[in-house]
Amino acid sequence: MDSIYNDLNAPHSMGTTIIGVTYDGGVVLGADSRTSTGMYVANRASDKITQLTDNVYICRSGSAADSQVLSDYVRYYLHQHTIQLGQPATVKVAANLVRMVSYNNKNMLQTGLIVGGWDKYEGGKIYGIPLGGTLLEQPFTIGGSGSSYLYGFFDQVWKEGMTQDEAEKLVVKAVSLAIARDGASGGVVRTVTINKDGVSRKFFPGNTLPLWHEELEAKDSLLDGLSAASPEPMVS
Amino acid sequence: MSRFEESAPARGGFSFDLCKRNEMLMQKGLKPSSYLKTGTTIVGLVFQDGVILGADTRATEGPIVADKNCEKIHYMAPNIYCCGAGTAADTEAVTDMVSSQLKLHRFHTGRESRVVTALTLLKSHLFSYQGHVSAALVLGGVDVTGPHLHTIYPHGSTDTLPFATMGSGSLAAMAIFESKYREGLTRDEGVKLVAEAICSGIFNDLGSGSNVDVCVITKGNREYLRNYMLPNPRTYVSEKGYSFSKKTEVLLTKITPLRELVEVIEGGDAMEE
C-alpha cells in the first residue's frame, strides 16, 4: 500500500523520447507524450516541445519541474534579448542561454534538452544539451530514456539533406520505435517543424503509428459496447 | 567541495540543512512526527461552460481520521478555486498565500485574476522549496481567456489538462474519468461525473472518505456545493443514549454577553496621551 503512495508523491519525471533533426531548409523536433510519477502515468498527453521564441523551440526531458522552470527563465531572457537586439534571436543564442542556466545549476538540475529552430543567418540548427550542461551543435540528436533504443536506428537511416516530408516521417518512425520498447515513453507523437515559412505543429495519435515486432493492434475500449444509459444486467 | 560550502557566506534563500538532518535521522530509525495529511481524492474537469472541481472530505493523521468533514476546495479568487492534496498545513498555507497575492494583484491591475497567474505563483513557490512543501493541487477557474484546469505537483511541475485527478484516490477517480469523460459535457452531466469519480475514490481508497464537495465555476458565476453528496451517513445511534457515570461532574455552560457588564462607548474620542 505504501509503495503506491510513494509513487504518487514521486517527483514528476518525463521518461521520454525526444528527437531533433535538421533537413534541407529547417528542422523537425519530435517527442512522445508520457509524464510519469514513479510507475503511474500522470499525464498521457503532455506537450514536451515548448516554445522559446517564434522561431526557436525546445524539447524537454528528465525532471518535469526543472525543465519547465528552465524553459520559463530562458523564454524570459530571450524576450529581453530580442527587444534589446531589435530582431529575432538566433538559435545559437537561445541554445547558449539554455546551456548557461543548465551548466551553472548543474548540481540542482536534472534535465536533458534539445534546442531547435531556424534563423536567417544559419538556417535550421539543432543543439543538444544533455545533463551536465554541455552544448553540442549536431545535424541530428536524440535524448531521453527512450533514446537508448534509437542510436543504431539513426546510424543506419540518417542522411544529410532530406526533404521535409522525409524528415518528419523519420522522426515519427523513430519516436514510435522508442515508444514500443521504452516503458517510460508512450502516448502520442508530437512534432514541430520550423523553417523560413514559420512553425507547424503535428500530432499523431497512438493508433496511427506503425506496429512493430509482436505489437498487437489497438482495440477500441471494451466499454464502447455498453451503452451508457442502460448497461445489460449481469445474469448468473 | 563540502569545505568550500561551509566557509562561504550565507547567500540567502531557503536553507536545506535541516532537511538533510531530518533525512539522516530518519535513516537512523527516528519515526517522523505524524502530521495531518489529506489522503484525498481531488478531481477537476472542463465542461462546455467552465470547470467543475470535486473533492472528498477526509483528513487523516497516520491511520486515524482526524477530520471527517474538512474543506479541500480552497478559495483563490472569485473566479478561481484550488483543490489541495498532501500535507493539510502546506495546502492551506500555500493557497492562502497565493490568494492574498492575487488580491493585491487585482488591486494593482484593476482586473479580474487569471488562472495562469495563480499557476505561476504556485509553481514558483513550490519549485523554490524543491518538493519539501508537500502540496499537490488541482487549480481550476474561468477568466477572460476562457476555462482553465491545471495540476501542480509538489516539485513545481504543472500540466494543463481537460480532466485531472490527484491524491491517493487519483487512480480510482481517473478510471472513472478515462471511461466516461467526453468533450462538451453539460453542467449536470459534469457534476454527476465528478461526484461519481470522487465516490470511486471514497469507496475504493482508504485515504479518502466521508462526503463529496463540488464547485462549479462558469463565466461570471461560481457555485460552491459544500457536501453535495453525503454517502456515508452515521447509521447506528444507540437507543439508550449516551450518559456519563455518576462520578462525572457536568458543568453548566453559560454565555454572558459582556455588553451587560461593561460600559461600551461607541465612537468616542481617539486615545490621547
UniProtKB/TrEMBL annotation, chain A:
<dbReference type="GO" id="GO:0019774">
    <property type="term" value="C:proteasome core complex, beta-subunit complex"/>
</dbReference>
<keyword id="KW-0539">Nucleus</keyword>
<comment type="function">
    <text>The proteasome is a multicatalytic proteinase complex which is characterized by its ability to cleave peptides with Arg, Phe, Tyr, Leu, and Glu adjacent to the leaving group at neutral or slightly basic pH. The proteasome has an ATP-dependent proteolytic activity.</text>
</comment>
<comment type="similarity">
    <text>Belongs to the peptidase T1B family.</text>
</comment>
<dbReference type="Pfam" id="PF00227">
    <property type="entry name" value="Proteasome"/>
</dbReference>
<keyword id="KW-0865">Zymogen</keyword>
<comment type="function">
    <text>Component of the proteasome, a multicatalytic proteinase complex which is characterized by its ability to cleave peptides with Arg, Phe, Tyr, Leu, and Glu adjacent to the leaving group at neutral or slightly basic pH. The proteasome has an ATP-dependent proteolytic activity.</text>
</comment>
<dbReference type="InterPro" id="IPR023333">
    <property type="entry name" value="Proteasome_suB-type"/>
</dbReference>
<keyword id="KW-0888">Threonine protease</keyword>
<dbReference type="InterPro" id="IPR016050">
    <property type="entry name" value="Proteasome_bsu_CS"/>
</dbReference>
<dbReference type="InterPro" id="IPR001353">
    <property type="entry name" value="Proteasome_sua/b"/>
</dbReference>
<feature type="active site" description="Nucleophile">
    <location>
        <position position="16"/>
    </location>
</feature>
<keyword id="KW-0378">Hydrolase</keyword>
<dbReference type="GO" id="GO:0005737">
    <property type="term" value="C:cytoplasm"/>
</dbReference>
<dbReference type="GO" id="GO:0051603">
    <property type="term" value="P:proteolysis involved in protein catabolic process"/>
</dbReference>
<keyword id="KW-0647">Proteasome</keyword>
<dbReference type="GO" id="GO:0005634">
    <property type="term" value="C:nucleus"/>
</dbReference>
<keyword id="KW-0963">Cytoplasm</keyword>
<protein>
    <recommendedName>
        <fullName>Proteasome subunit beta</fullName>
    </recommendedName>
</protein>
<keyword id="KW-0645">Protease</keyword>
<dbReference type="InterPro" id="IPR000243">
    <property type="entry name" value="Pept_T1A_subB"/>
</dbReference>
<dbReference type="InterPro" id="IPR029055">
    <property type="entry name" value="Ntn_hydrolases_N"/>
</dbReference>
Automatic annotation (TrEMBL), chain B:
<protein>
    <recommendedName>
        <fullName>Proteasome subunit beta</fullName>
    </recommendedName>
</protein>
<keyword id="KW-0963">Cytoplasm</keyword>
<dbReference type="InterPro" id="IPR029055">
    <property type="entry name" value="Ntn_hydrolases_N"/>
</dbReference>
<keyword id="KW-0378">Hydrolase</keyword>
<dbReference type="Pfam" id="PF00227">
    <property type="entry name" value="Proteasome"/>
</dbReference>
<keyword id="KW-0647">Proteasome</keyword>
<comment type="function">
    <text>The proteasome is a multicatalytic proteinase complex which is characterized by its ability to cleave peptides with Arg, Phe, Tyr, Leu, and Glu adjacent to the leaving group at neutral or slightly basic pH. The proteasome has an ATP-dependent proteolytic activity.</text>
</comment>
<comment type="similarity">
    <text>Belongs to the peptidase T1B family.</text>
</comment>
<keyword id="KW-0539">Nucleus</keyword>
<feature type="active site" description="Nucleophile">
    <location>
        <position position="40"/>
    </location>
</feature>
<dbReference type="InterPro" id="IPR016050">
    <property type="entry name" value="Proteasome_bsu_CS"/>
</dbReference>
<dbReference type="GO" id="GO:0005737">
    <property type="term" value="C:cytoplasm"/>
</dbReference>
<dbReference type="InterPro" id="IPR000243">
    <property type="entry name" value="Pept_T1A_subB"/>
</dbReference>
<comment type="function">
    <text>Component of the proteasome, a multicatalytic proteinase complex which is characterized by its ability to cleave peptides with Arg, Phe, Tyr, Leu, and Glu adjacent to the leaving group at neutral or slightly basic pH. The proteasome has an ATP-dependent proteolytic activity.</text>
</comment>
<keyword id="KW-0645">Protease</keyword>
<dbReference type="InterPro" id="IPR001353">
    <property type="entry name" value="Proteasome_sua/b"/>
</dbReference>
<dbReference type="GO" id="GO:0005839">
    <property type="term" value="C:proteasome core complex"/>
</dbReference>
<comment type="subunit">
    <text>Component of the 20S core complex of the 26S proteasome. The 26S proteasome is composed of a core protease (CP), known as the 20S proteasome, capped at one or both ends by the 19S regulatory particle (RP/PA700). The 20S proteasome core is composed of 28 subunits that are arranged in four stacked rings, resulting in a barrel-shaped structure. The two end rings are each formed by seven alpha subunits, and the two central rings are each formed by seven beta subunits. The catalytic chamber with the active sites is on the inside of the barrel.</text>
</comment>
<dbReference type="GO" id="GO:0004298">
    <property type="term" value="F:threonine-type endopeptidase activity"/>
</dbReference>
<dbReference type="GO" id="GO:0005634">
    <property type="term" value="C:nucleus"/>
</dbReference>
<keyword id="KW-0888">Threonine protease</keyword>
<comment type="subunit">
    <text>Component of the proteasome complex.</text>
</comment>
